[in-house]
Amino acid sequence: MYKLSKSISRLRIKCKNEAKGCTATFPLSEEFCHSAGCQFEPVACPHQGCSAQVLRRDLEAHAQRCEHWRQLCPMGCGTLLSLQTQAQHNCYRQLRQEYEAQRQTHRAIAAALQRKMRKMQNTMAHMKRQIGLICESLEVMDSQEEAETTGEASSSTSSSSSS
Ligand SMILES: [Zn+2]
Ligand SMILES: [Zn+2]
Ligand SMILES: [Zn+2]
């Protein structure tokens, strides 16, 4: 009996993927180990959404051109790249475009603020002029009143009157 079991364990079996091209033979006890690394073992594509089953030896080639291939841009711009967009994606250009766009918005905001400030300054200058005019006319009225009440018709009726 001992001899038999020993010869069974020594019995070399063929890989179950023989039909797919694996020529390996190994003791029965090593079957699990072999199939875990067998290049002819069908394995699922690791990309989400892909239902392809490919031989392990073809997996790398498949994964590289799998249409479900997705990867975040390695430059860290946050863009999720696919096979189609990967070739066109130029991170530097994209970042630059974003930067330029941001700069233009900032410039536009600054210009708008400047316009507002200028408007306010204009309004303030206008108000100052108005206030000045009002003050002048009040002074004129005062001096006129003074002149009327005191009866003095001297040169104090000019706009630069005494206080
Ligand atoms: Zn095999
Ligand atoms: Zn795939
Ligand atoms: Zn990028």
UniProtKB/TrEMBL annotation:
Compositional bias of kind Low complexity: 150-163
Region feature Disordered, mapped onto this chain: 144-163
Residue ranges occupied by any SIAH-type domain in the UniProt entry: 10-68
Alphabetized UniProt keyword annotations: Coiled coil, Metal-binding, Zinc, Zinc-finger
Coiled-coil region(s): 96-130
Stretches annotated zinc finger (TRAF-type): 34-77
GO MF term set: zinc ion binding
Protein name: TRAF-type domain-containing protein
GO biological-process terms attached to the record: regulation of canonical NF-kappaB signal transduction
Keyword presence, Coiled coil: yes
Organism whose genome encodes this protein: Albula goreensis
Domain called TRAF-type: residue spans: 34-77
One Pfam family here: zf-TRAF
